[in-house]
Amino acid sequence: MAVEEIHAEMVSSVWKVLVQPGAQVSAGDTLVILESMKMEIPVLTESAGTVQELHVVEGEVLQEGDLIAIVAHS
């Protein structure tokens, strides 16, 4: 089973969390929406799978490289 680690690409805040651990996701689904410099940035999964871990909460400030989620692909 492959595991995808999803990290923040820039300093941003977590505007909205759209999934919870255990959720089934499809390729291209939005997991969370980040906000940086008044722009909304969707964070997508690359492949279908199950959200194993979610490491952020709404309102949290992230630094570049912070872990957002882990998705297991079947």
Automatic annotation (TrEMBL):
One Pfam family cited in the UniProt record for this chain: Biotin_lipoyl
The organism's place on the tree of life at top rank: Bacteria
Sequence ranges assigned to domain Lipoyl-binding in this UniProt record: 1-72
Keyword Membrane: no
Highest classification ranks of the organism: Bacteria, Bacillati, Actinomycetota, Actinomycetes, Geodermatophilales
Protein keywords: Biotin
InterPro entries (UniProt xref): Biotin_Carboxyl_Carrier/Decarb, Biotin_lipoyl, Single_hybrid_motif
Protein name: Biotin/lipoyl-binding carrier protein
